[in-house]
């Protein structure tokens, strides 16, 4: 960062030095002449490049738009270099300033025609130009009215976004549920869940998440926890049962999930299934520990689940020994060459 500041400072110093030399040698107006000549030349080259590009792409509409600007810029370059008709040069500069300002103003509302830009949002709404009215309402910060316009257009996702911006989270959630029914995309259910939560309606949030979990089953555990928070033990138990079924299937393919099976089974009072799952989790961890000693930590956890305290302690010691070896190895490799010799001296 210091080098960057140095380079920037050096560059500015060089530019100021060159400018000062030009003023000292040939006067202030020579400096202005050079600046204008280089500026117009750069602009002409840039416009010429884009003009050539649009002609090559056979985009005749944009080529015709660029042609007069390129010609005017080229004329400004000629007048600046020859230093004549300075009033025209000033007019060309003013023309380009106005053109840039107009361009920025125009692209700020690309969906509006020139006439619509001078109409109020209310008038556009009365004219039935709901898309344009929505854009006007958005710009004014009236997102609730913008949402109403989008609803009239049938643009549910845009309406949901606008209601979110307006803080109308419940309405946004309802629209996301409608979008799910229409599109059958589970993304909308997840969004509905989040916005019901923001609206403070946890019952509706739980129902949306439950529907989501029917298609994305790894979320059944979250559904169960949410129903527990709501005090709905019956629905929570149903969700835990479904989470258990999901993890049992996963555990058949990847043994690490036996821990989840054991935890949920124990929670549901299925002690025999819990012990069986923890035993399988232990076998999986022991096998992994043969290749990676880090797994002794999980071996200890598995023994804890099974109530075998002594074996858990033995496994924990093995994990601690492994951890200490890693720490020592890291300390040794972190020394720079000759550092150890210097420390001894």
TrEMBL record:
<keyword id="KW-0802">TPR repeat</keyword>
<feature type="repeat" description="TPR">
    <location>
        <begin position="217"/>
        <end position="250"/>
    </location>
</feature>
<dbReference type="GO" id="GO:0016740">
    <property type="term" value="F:transferase activity"/>
</dbReference>
<feature type="transmembrane region" description="Helical">
    <location>
        <begin position="62"/>
        <end position="81"/>
    </location>
</feature>
<feature type="transmembrane region" description="Helical">
    <location>
        <begin position="6"/>
        <end position="24"/>
    </location>
</feature>
<dbReference type="Pfam" id="PF13174">
    <property type="entry name" value="TPR_6"/>
</dbReference>
<protein>
    <submittedName>
        <fullName>GlcNAc transferase</fullName>
    </submittedName>
</protein>
<keyword id="KW-0812">Transmembrane</keyword>
<keyword id="KW-1133">Transmembrane helix</keyword>
<keyword id="KW-0472">Membrane</keyword>
<feature type="transmembrane region" description="Helical">
    <location>
        <begin position="31"/>
        <end position="56"/>
    </location>
</feature>
<keyword id="KW-0175">Coiled coil</keyword>
<dbReference type="InterPro" id="IPR011990">
    <property type="entry name" value="TPR-like_helical_dom_sf"/>
</dbReference>
<feature type="coiled-coil region">
    <location>
        <begin position="305"/>
        <end position="332"/>
    </location>
</feature>
<keyword id="KW-0808">Transferase</keyword>
<feature type="transmembrane region" description="Helical">
    <location>
        <begin position="88"/>
        <end position="107"/>
    </location>
</feature>
<dbReference type="InterPro" id="IPR019734">
    <property type="entry name" value="TPR_rpt"/>
</dbReference>
């Amino acid at each position: 960062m210091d080098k960057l500041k140095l380079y920037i400072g050096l560059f500015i110093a060089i530019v100021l030095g060159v400018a000062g030399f030009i003023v000292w040698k040939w006067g202030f107006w020579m400096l202005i002449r050079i600046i204008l000549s280089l500026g117009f030349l750069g602009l002409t080259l840039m416009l010429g490049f884009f003009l050539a590009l649009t002609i090559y792409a056979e985009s005749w509409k944009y080529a015709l738009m660029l042609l007069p600007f390129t010609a005017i810029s080229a004329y400004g370059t000629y007048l600046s270099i020859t230093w004549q008709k300075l009033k025209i040069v000033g007019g060309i500069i003013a023309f380009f300033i106005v053109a840039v300002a107009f361009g920025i103003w125009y692209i700020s509302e690309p969906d509006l025609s020139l006439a619509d830009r001078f109409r109020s949002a209310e008038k556009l709404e009365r004219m039935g130009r709901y898309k344009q009215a929505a854009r006007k309402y958005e710009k004014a910060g009236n997102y609730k009215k913008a949402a109403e316009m989008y609803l009239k257009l049938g643009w549910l996702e845009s309406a949901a976004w606008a209601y979110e911006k307006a803080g109308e989270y419940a309405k946004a959630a309802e629209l996301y549920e409608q979008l799910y029914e229409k599109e059958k995309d589970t993304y909308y259910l997840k969004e509905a869940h989040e916005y019901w939560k923001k609206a403070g309606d946890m019952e509706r949030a739980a129902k949306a998440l439950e529907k989501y979990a029917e298609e994305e089953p790894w979320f059944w555990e979250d559904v169960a926890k949410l129903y527990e928070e709501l005090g709905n033990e019956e629905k929570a138990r149903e969700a835990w049962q479904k989470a258990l079924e999901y993890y049992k299937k996963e555990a058949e393919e990847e043994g690490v999930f036996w821990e989840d099976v054991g935890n949920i089974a124990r929670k549901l009072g299925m002690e025999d299934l819990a012990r069986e799952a923890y035993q399988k989790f232990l076998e999986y961890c022991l096998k992994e520990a043969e290749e990676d000693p880090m797994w002794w930590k999980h071996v200890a956890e598995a023994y804890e689940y099974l109530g075998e305290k002594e074996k858990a302690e033995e496994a924990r010691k093995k994990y601690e020994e492994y951890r200490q070896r890693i720490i020592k190895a890291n300390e040794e490799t972190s020394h720079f060459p000759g550092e150890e010799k210097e420390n001894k001296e």
